[in-house]
Structure prediction request, 163 residues.
Amino acid sequence: MPGGLIVYGLLTGLAIALAIAAFTDLRSRQIYNWLTVTVAVAAPIFWIASGLPLWPGIATQLGITVLCFGICCGLFALGQMGGGDVKLLTALALWFPPMLFLKLAVLMALIGGVLTIVFGAWHIARRQKEKLAIPYGLAIASAGLWVLAKQFLSTAPSQFALG
Prediction:
């Protein structure tokens, strides 16, 4: 692989960005735009460094991203997802091939369910009256970090593949 060191650097940067997103969403229920833009802009560099072909590789990544954005916008319109969550998940769709992104989505839903139960119980225990706010960016980032660790960090740089 021509860009092994670059690929490692980009994956490390993605992991750091996900950790920041989780922390800021947990602390202030906000995921910064500069963070999601950075994740999105770094993806094409990752594609080039990892040798992803234009067809079907990059076209598939863009298709998954558009599909993800459409579904997330629908959830946003229904009030079921925050804007920062939509942007972060859409940016992550640029990084993961279809099956890995599906794993990420399932894991994100499971983690999000646990977060909802924990935060809901905490909300009830403290007898709070305001609307329950779940830091779903934490679920998105945790799932992304899990898939990164499972798929990429357990593989030698010459074995990186998006498919």
